[in-house]
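dumping the sequnces here before i forget
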Amino acid sequence: MSDAISVSGLVKTFGPTRALDGLDLTVRTGEVHGFLGPNGAGKSTTIRVLLGLLRADAGAATLLGGDPWRDTAGLHRRLAYVPGDVSLWPNLTGGEVIDLLGRLRGGLDERRRKDLLDRFELDPRKKGRTYSKGNRQKVALVAALASDVELLILDEPTSGLDPLMEAVFQEAVNEERGNRTVLLSSHILAEVEALCDRVSIIRNGRTVETGTLADLRHLTRTSVSAELAVAPNGLASLAGVHDLVVDGPRVRFEVDTDHLDDALRALVSSGIRSLTSRPPTLEELFLRHYEVPEAAVRS
Amino acid sequence: MTALVGTGALVRLALRRDRLLLPVWVLGLVGITLSTASGMYELYGTEELRQQLGATAGVNPAFLAMLGPIYDHTTIGGILAWRWGVFGALLTGLMAMFLVTRHTRAEEETGRLELIGSTVTGRHAPLAAAVAVSALASLLIGVLTGLGLTGLGERAGGAFALGLAFTAVGWAFTGVGAVAAQLTESARTANAVSGAVLGAAYLLRAVGDAAGDQGPTWLTWLSPIGWLEQVRAFADDRWWVLLLPVALSALLVGAASALVTRRDHGGGLLPTRLGPARAPGSLGSAFGLAWRLQRGMLLGWTLALFALGGVYGAVARGVEQMLEANPALEKVMAQMGGSGGIVDVYLASIVGIVGLFSSIYVVQATLRLRTEETDFRAEPVLATPVRRVSWVASHLAFATLGTAVVLAAAGLGAGLVHGARVGDVGGQVGRLVGAALAHLPAVWVVAGIALALFGLVPKLVMASWAVLVVFLVLGQLGPVLGLDQWAMDLSPFTHIPKLPGADLTATPLVWLTVTAVALMAVGFAGFRRRDIG
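..and the predicted 3d for all of it:
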């Protein structure tokens, strides 16, 4: 199967600001792809280039086999988009906006429309200006999820949703798995961990990491804490062991996942009484990438 | 007075935001007033010319309806108060209501006021600050007008009576804007309500002024713009009349602040009703959406210009009777309306004014595109299969064809009323609708300018309004200012044959249409190539 989205070396500048600085992104057909990055990293800019709203300065972007700038109308027939901050027409009701966007995309699935309105507990009779932020978001989500399209582009779609509605959203996206490709930009890590097959992490307009969650964890450290029979020896000199704290027979450290084997061997030789090891959460993955000074990331 | 805490800071914020807008309004208005006055020294330089004007303009119902009575034709100041007073009052009122809405309801609608409301600001502070800024701007207009006219050599008493009459009208419409901002949830509707009040104020005094001794002259006293006339600057300087707009202003601002305490933040006074859960069949395309967004404004303009046409049409027959005795006035009218039968000259001049009004509509309708874009409502639509060209075309259709509807309504109103009075409804309706529609190519050029700006330099779309003001000044005041023909030719409205009466020449209409289409093509091409947002 071909890739639904393939972007390489994308550059976009706004005056002196370089919003995208050689960004790469590949989304395979049928997967749910997480698109992670701090505020201002370039997530929305990338999405808006993919939607043909912005024209890239350099680089190549292919969307569903077409050029997002030139084949706009044809491509838009096959996708639905939810912006991060939904702005509605003050005089149109939520139901009218859902129908309008659905018809512009070429039709809505009536059954899904009704089902999603129920599950999101959205009153479609209210006027646009009276909805709260979360409810405006729901209007766009229902319109997108009820559309009969092969690609969903969701730009921080759950900002403003409460945890219950967040769960409804995750459930709804999980039901789409396999049927449609989803590009989900987010900085809610639990959401990405729960939904995404693969993730790309970007920072300062560049991709810093991409792969499955398992791949990414592989590149990182595991936290280990253990209680030993005797004080450990030789641990500190092992390659790949960091932040070692020895408190009598208790030890805590982090170890590069590649060197986990050696570290455990050293622990075993000291006699293990208890052991907990924890794979890195996405949180740690995320923090590690964002906290590294810029120079280190670029090198 | 805790309710007013933070007013000072909000006033400073407003002055900072409007550091360009306010000087443009204030200096622009004062500048037009003073340059009109200086032009008049040449036009009405001799005692004889002024006497001639007084004998004709002062009694002519057409001039009475358009400009009001002339109370002092012996001084340039008095002539200025007649020729420019009502228009200056309209513009000052417009400025006041826009300023108040901009700093109250518009801020509330975007949610920015909520951010400010959570800081140490009293409940009444935002309204008080907006009123203060608008009142201050109006006061500046009045004082600078007074100083400027005195500087030109006019009597100080009259100069300040006229200037402060502008101020008082500004204050009255500050009050109107303040109340309108409380009633509705959207700034657009608030401006429409205030605009309707302003239009009614103009029409009430038009009917009252032209009514004649037996008619309802008291109608003039119901209008803040009528009060400006009744100050009779340079003639009697009736300062006490200024108490009326000041009292009205105090009353309205008081009412507005009482309303503030009675409603929720972000809400209006009228309860919000639920709407339909499903979209009607018409709302399924870019054009359907544009119709939904534009229809209210189109309807409002159509009704307003129909009424304006009717009022102007009502006095056309009186022109005939009055002008027959006064050939001197015919010269003045010919400047505004071209040559031809006397009534036709008058009708052509009102059709010219209607053409200018309809170009306000065309700019509003075209710039709706930019509002949709900056409010992030264009993005979701353009992310559907709707092409950029279709999206622009859907709104432009309302700008261009809607103008035809608005112009035809004005011609219809004038034709029906004038036709009924002269016993030729069928004939007059046809002539006047046709004469009004002849302005379409010029209005389309205005739409073309707005669209070209939107496509090429979207940040500067507001310059469309400046262009429109230039056309207004060229068309209405060009002869008074003694401008050269080449300068007058810059305005597309100069090239429109002065129908009815003049010969219909197709060439300028064709060229204007070609220019308009070319400008629109530039706008489309620019928009297809540029970034959205």
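Chain B has two domains: 1-268, 284-533.
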